[in-house]
Amino acid sequence: MKILVREALKEELPEIRMQRVSAYEDHRGAIPEEHWQALKTTISSNADQQPGVELLIAEINGDMLGSVALFPAKTDAYEGLVAALDYPEIRVLSVIPQARGIGVASALMEECIHRAKAKGYPAIGLHTGEFMKGAIALYKNFGFVRIPQHDFEPANDGITVMAFQKSL
N or C: which end of the chain has fewer CB within 10 A? Predict the structure, then answer.
């Protein structure tokens, strides 16, 4: 079973956004409802349509199973909550629940890392909610390390969005 990672097409945007919400829904019970609503708004937004953002999907046999957005360096990926960083940022990585555990997230991560390296960046980063334990384990397996100086608390509700970085 071969996972193909490719650029998303404009007409795939509605499905990508629906899949993101479905993928992140697992976390709904772990966070307050207000935080969930804010997260849902963020992952459904058109932030991934900013100039230079690479929106990628993973598919098997033509079925879209996941997606990720790779934001270029020095982009306001978090609407003023984090200073623009000198390296690309992986955002809104999602895999539909029924496709978990078969390598979709890893394929998307590998492609983001490959693209950042190909552009000569010394590092790649990402942010994730502290409640996303599976995602954190994935990132650590890829060699990402915590950089708490870039953490932020978007909803002032005690839930930290943790920063990670990988040297390339």
Answer: N
